[in-house]
Structures are given as structure tokens and as C-alpha cells.
């Protein structure tokens, strides 16, 4: 893209892609290992290219790399050394660029809990033990590799707790790379959006206020019904907002399967845009058809 992503966000909504890993799974690829879709960066890169291309054909303007679970630690457990792991992280950018040449490339930076492959990104239970310094050290190599490979922005996503937000903000500032900051949230009985760790989401989003590297804040891997309260909370940052909910289904980490049914109700999309959403897409179980419906809704809402 010749236009910078911040400039595009100032002009209007931008369509983000959907759930890369769950679309790979829907196409018959095995993503059940602890590496999830990152395994295919090594074993079947053409499959990753095909899904990126499908989302681009559906109207996605941002291609999110297959690096959510691509970490030095995760690849080490699979027998790959540090250099090999970081080469695969860089490959994720090249594959996205190749398959969606007209798109911005967002380098996916998943939370520490994703590397544990135990569903703890949906609890944030690890942050008290791990601490901010260790989280910074964990995120640093991948963030640097994605930036060096030419990602337009780093998608720091599915963050469950304030401590991890602090860590990725510190690393983004240290590296001087543009990021978007995306929490996974729930709504409490009083209608207040909270992180998975239980903190008030508005307080966590406010941590990004005044940080020049942050181009947008918002939510992903959140139930579609919880997006509205989350966007209200995200307004505390004073930045463009992001809304990339999952389908409404719930991940059962013990059984390693999705439970329930659901889909993103595109009738809610114009309301998200009125609330400030400028990056709109999907997450787990939202495939190319769902992204095409979001793109059509945005075109209709914006008019000719």
C-alpha cells in the first residue's frame, strides 16, 4: 500500500481479515499442535498463502500474518533453533505480502499465553508469575523480526491483562515500530468491559494514550455482543478503534475444540463505526464469507 495505514484510518474504515488458523482448519489442515497455524509456516506455506488470498478476495485490506503462535520458545520445543524460528517469523510477512500484494501487512504478535497452548490467553493467569520484564523479553525477538521483515504494523492482539499491555507498549516504544493494541475482553454484570484478568478495560486502554507508536486500539477474539462496551472503553485512549470479534463460539482449551454456534451480525457493524472503529474484521471462526459480508456492509454504510 502506498498510503500509510494511519492516513487510511483517518479517511474511513479499513477491512481486516478474519481467523487465519480456523480457516486453515476448516480447509482440512491440522492445527491441533502447540504451534497451531505457525506449524504451516514450515510445513505447508502454500496453505497459508491460499488463505491470505481468500481473505483478500473477500475484501480484506489488511493481511494478518501467521505468526500469532510463532515464537522462539514454541519453535524450540519443536526442535528449531532461534535463527530458524526467527526466519519462519520473517517468512510469515513474506507470505502475506505475496498473497495479498494490495494489502497492508499486520505482523501478528500473540500473547505469552498463546505459546503455552493451554487457553491461558483467555484468563491472563500467567502474568502474576511471569512479570513485565519477562514478558518484554518474550515479545522482543518476534516483534523485531516482524518489523525487520517489513510488516506495516504489528498487531499486538488477544492481550488479556494490563501487565502484558505494559510489556508490548514498552517494546513498541523501544523498537520504534507502529502497533495496534487489541485486548480480549468480557462484560461484567454491570455492563463494564473488563480484561480477561478482570481489570477495567478503559484503564488498560488508557495506557496507550500519548504513545506515538500506537495507531489504533480495540478488541479481538471477543464475543460480538461485547464489542460495543469494549469500544466505549477503548475511547479512553483517544485513538482510532479496532473491532475484530470472533464468531461468538467459545474455545474449550481442555477438549481443544470450539463449542456453541454463532456468527458476526453485520447489522452491528455500522454502530461500531459510529463508535470510532476504523479497523473492522474478524477473529476465530470468521472466514472469508464473514469478511465479505463485513466489507459489503461497510461499503453500503459509507455510500458511493
TrEMBL record:
Question: Which InterPro entries does the entry mention?
Answer: BHMT-like, HCY_dom, HCY_dom_sf, Hcy_S-methyltransferase
Q: Identify the Pfam families for this entry.
A: S-methyl_trans
Q: Would you tell me the protein name for this molecule?
A: Homocysteine S-methyltransferase
List residues binding Zn(2+): 221, 283-284
Q: Keywords, A to Z?
A: Metal-binding, Methyltransferase, Transferase, Zinc
Record-annotated Hcy-binding domain positions: 2-298
Per its UniProt entry, which superkingdom is the organism in?
Answer: Bacteria
Query: What's the cofactor?
Result: Zn(2+)
One GO MF term on file is: S-adenosylmethionine-homocysteine S-methyltransferase activity
The record's comment on cofactor binding reads: Binds 1 zinc ion per subunit.
* Any one biological process term the GO annotation gives: methionine biosynthetic process
Please list every transmembrane segment annotated in the UniProt record, as residue ranges.
none
Origin species: Geodermatophilus obscurus
Q: What is the lineage of its organism?
A: Bacteria, Bacillati, Actinomycetota, Actinomycetes, Geodermatophilales
Amino acid at each position: 500500500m502506498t498510503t500509510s495505514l494511519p492516513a487510511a484510518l483517518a479517511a474511513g474504515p479499513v477491512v481486516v481479515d478474519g481467523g487465519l488458523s480456523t480457516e486453515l482448519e476448516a480447509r482440512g489442515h491440522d492445527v491441533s499442535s502447540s504451534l497451531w497455524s505457525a506449524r504451516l509456516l514450515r510445513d505447508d506455506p502454500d496453505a497459508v498463502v491460499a488463505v491470505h488470498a481468500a481473505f483478500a478476495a473477500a475484501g480484506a485490506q489488511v493481511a494478518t500474518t501467521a505468526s500469532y503462535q510463532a515464537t522462539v520458545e514454541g519453535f524450540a520445543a519443536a526442535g528449531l533453533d532461534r535463527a530458524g524460528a526467527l526466519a519462519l517469523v520473517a517468512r510469515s510477512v513474506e507470505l502475506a505480502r505475496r498473497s495479498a500484494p494490495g494489502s497492508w501487512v499486520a505482523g501478528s504478535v500473540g500473547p505469552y499465553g498463546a505459546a503455552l497452548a493451554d487457553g491461558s490467553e483467555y484468563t491472563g493467569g500467567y502474568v502474576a508469575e511471569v512479570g513485565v520484564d519477562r514478558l518484554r523479553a518474550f515479545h522482543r525477538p518476534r516483534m523485531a523480526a516482524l518489523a525487520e521483515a517489513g510488516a506495516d504494523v504489528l498487531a499486538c492482539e488477544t492481550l488479556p491483562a494490563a501487565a502484558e499491555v505494559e510489556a508490548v507498549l514498552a517494546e513498541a516504544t523501544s523498537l520504534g515500530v507502529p502497533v495496534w493494541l487489541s485486548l480480549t475482553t468480557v462484560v461484567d454484570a454491570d455492563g463494564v468491559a473488563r480484561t480477561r484478568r478482570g481489570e477495567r478495560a478503559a484503564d488498560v486502554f488508557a495506557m496507550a494514550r500519548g504513545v506515538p507508536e500506537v495507531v489504533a486500539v480495540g478488541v479481538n477474539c471477543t464475543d460480538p455482543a461485547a464489542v460495543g462496551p469494549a469500544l466505549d472503553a477503548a475511547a479512553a485512549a483517544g485513538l482510532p478503534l479496532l473491532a475484530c470479534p470472533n464468531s461468538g463460539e467459545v474455545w474449550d482449551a481442555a477438549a481443544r475444540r470450539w463449542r456453541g454456534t454463532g456468527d458476526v451480525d453485520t447489522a452491528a457493524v455500522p454502530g461500531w463505526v459510529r463508535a470510532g472503529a476504523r479497523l473492522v474484521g474478524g477473529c476465530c471462526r470468521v472466514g472469508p464469507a464473514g469478511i465479505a459480508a463485513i466489507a459489503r456492509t461497510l461499503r453500503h454504510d459509507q455510500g458511493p
